[in-house]
Amino acid sequence: MPTPGTMTMYLALATIAILLLLWAACLVLLLLITWGIIFYKVPFVPTPGAVVSEALKLLPLSSGDVLYDIGSGNGRMVFAFANACPSARVIGVEASPFPFLLTLLRRWGGATRNASFIFKDFSNVSLAGASHVYTYLLPSVMARLLPRFEKELAPGTRVLSCDFPFKSRTPLQTAKVNVGKFTYTLYVYEF
Ligand SMILES: C[S@@+](CC[C@H](N)C(=O)[O-])C[C@H]1O[C@@H](n2cnc3c(N)ncnc32)[C@H](O)[C@@H]1O
Questions:
Q1: Of 4, 24, 158, 163, which residue is 20 to 30 A from 180 by alpha carbon distance?
Q2: Same domain, 16 and 101
Q3: Ligand 1 centre and the CA of 144: distance in Å?
Q4: Model confidence, pTM
């Protein structure tokens, strides 16, 4: 029969163990959320709803088109493009676990047959088969992507970038969208 002193000690140990587990879980969650910033220097920020509608107008898809959202976050743009044109194929590429998990939960909630996802660094995914590409990244990443796009994308491929233009290229079209205090600019390019 354990004495009251022993019971108190067990209780204290159990409390410490639970607190340590909670602390470790918080650390893991924080790592998963900040993964994109730590490893890819790009935070997970979904394109705002009003910008999504404008993007769908600027980049209309038709049957047989293949659109890649490179750095697809929680899949918001992929589902929007896929629902807008069910006969096109839309592929999201995301390397950060937390937004990718959100994508899977979203897909579970309602299947979109023409949407698919790849959990990978987009530097290692070929874009040769793309007819359209969507990006919402950062200026430094856009600068690195330009020579790759020029080499890899098939002639005529349309690229839509949210907020971050290619400094040395003239866009075919631009559009501004006001969301609260912020103004987002969309840039359409043809390669
Ligand atoms: C600003 S968010 C945009 C999310 C989504 N495209 C949207 O518009 O809602 C950028 C995403 O790109 C991802 N990302 C950045 N670099 C990446 C890389 N090299 N490979 C795959 N994903 C990347 C980040 O993890 C982040 O989720």
A1: 158
A2: no
A3: 15
A4: 0.89
**Contacts with 117 (C-beta within 8 Å, 6 or more apart), sequence order:** 72, 75, 78, 91, 92, 93, 94, 100, 103, 104, 107
Q: Under DSSP, is residue 100 helix (H, G, I), strand (E, B) or coil? A: helix
46-101 pLDDT, tens digit per residue, is 999 999 999 999 999 999 999 999 999 999 999 999 999 999 999 999 999 999 99
Token code pair at residue 98: 């937390």
Whole-angstrom distance, CA of residue 43 vs CA of residue 69: 15
Q: How far is CA 61 from CA 58, 85, 87, 95, 132, in A?
A: 10, 6, 9, 25, 8
Range of the domain at 19: 1-40
Q: Total structural domains in the chain?
A: 2
CA angle, residues 148, 172, 42, in degrees to nearest 5: 45
Q: Is the Cβ atom of 77 under 6 angstroms away from ligand 1?
A: yes
Q: Residue 95 C-alpha to ligand 1 middle, in angstroms?
A: 7
